[in-house]
Design a protein that fits this description.
The chain is mainly α. It has helices at about 5-15, 25-30, 35-50, 55-80, 80-85, 105-125, 125-145, 155-165, 165-175, 180-205, 205-210, 215-220, 220-240, 240-245, 250-275, 275-310. Helix content is about 80%, strand content about 0%. The chain starts with a helix and ends with a helix. The chain is flat and about 55 Å long. The chain contains 16 helices and no strands. It catalyses: heme b + (2E,6E)-farnesyl diphosphate + H2O = Fe(II)-heme o + diphosphate.
Length: about 325
């Protein structure tokens, strides 16, 4: 080969666009691990409230499948929402908008995980649970991400059903059925979702405006959002104590649920009253962060109480 031919070949190789090579950490980020941790906890609560808890290996397989299904939903969400993520400061460093991963890689990753999670859950437990998991993934990706998120300020309200389904999926995996108790846990998460996300949206409304996402504050105004947050929080405060009232959560849960619900409602009142400047932003973020602790705490106590009961300690 002549020097000229070699140089021409090298120049041609340099002109070919180099595709990004995603790191394992980028694939892990696609799974939305913080969301996944909440999904696992709430699904575990659904499994443990079953009248007869399943064998530990079956429970583990169910939790693993539900966690992978949640991760698949996150990956497909990031694939479809890459254009929105690129213009929002909160999400601009995600793998696709940051240029560390091709969208097609995230799509393939999400689809493979979706199928693996659904079929594993079906073979390990039952096909009712698998069907519910498949519906959860479909609802989050197609109904919420592809449709509701970009079309209505009620996106979080309706779309929140996907995030609220893990306790029902967990209970179905353990029993092959759906119960009032699992529906109550669904309702707690469903009612919790709007005030949690809208509190953040009050602070990040400029991000959503740039992205063209009709979140409540930039679509209907901050005052309407504060009112909706207050209403949902006032409903959530007593609803959180219903598991204790129905007898599938203990006295510790009841005391914490009542106290935490009252405090959450008080924070919502502060968000409603404080409407200007830094004071308003601090009130909204305080509600946002406490709402995370609130939900984790309630489900963690249910899990703890049920494990202690199974072990014969209480």
């Amino acid at each position: 080969m002549s020097d000229a031919s070699y140089l021409d070949g090298a120049e041609a190789a340099r002109s070919v666009p180099q595709l990004p090579v995603a790191a394992p950490s980028d694939y892990f980020q696609l799974l939305k691990p913080r969301v996944m941790s909440l999904v696992v906890l709430t699904a575990l609560a659904g499994i443990l409230i079953a009248p007869v808890p399943p064998h530990p290996l079956v429970a583990f397989a169910a939790l693993l499948s539900i966690a992978v299904g949640a991760g698949a939903s996150g990956a497909l969400n990031m694939w479809y929402d890459a254009d929105i993520d690129a213009v929002m400061t909160r999400t601009a460093r995600r793998p696709i908008p940051a240029g560390r991963m091709e969208p097609e890689s995230a799509l393939a990753f999400g689809l493979v995980l979706s199928m693996l999670s659904v079929f594993t859950l079906g073979f390990a437990t039952n096909w009712l649970a698998a069907s519910l998991l498949a519906f959860t993934i479909f609802f989050y990706v197609v109904i919420y991400t592809m449709w509701l998120k970009r079309s209505t300020p009620q996106n979080i309200v309706i779309g929140g059903a996907a995030g609220a389904l893990p306790p029902i999926v967990g209970y179905a995996a353990a029993t092959g059925d759906i119960s009032l108790a699992s529906i109550v846990l669904f309702a707690v998460i469903f009612v919790w979702t709007p005030p949690h996300f809208w509190a953040l949206a009050l602070v990040k409304h400029d991000d959503y405006s740039r992205a063209g996402v009709p979140m409540m504050p930039n679509a209907l105004g901050a005052d309407r959002t504060r009112l909706e947050i207050l209403v949902y929080s006032l409903v959530l405060a007593p609803l959180g104590a219903v598991p204790w009232a129905l007898g599938f959560a203990g006295a510790v849960y009841g005391a914490v649920a009542i106290a935490a619900g009252l405090y959450l409602a008080w924070l919502a009142v502060q968000v409603y009253r404080r409407r200007e400047g830094d004071i308003a932003r601090r009130a909204a973020m305080k509600l946002f962060f406490f709402s995370i602790s609130y939900l984790f705490l309630l489900f963690l106590i249910i899990v703890g109480e049920r494990l202690l009961t199974i072990a014969g300690i209480i």
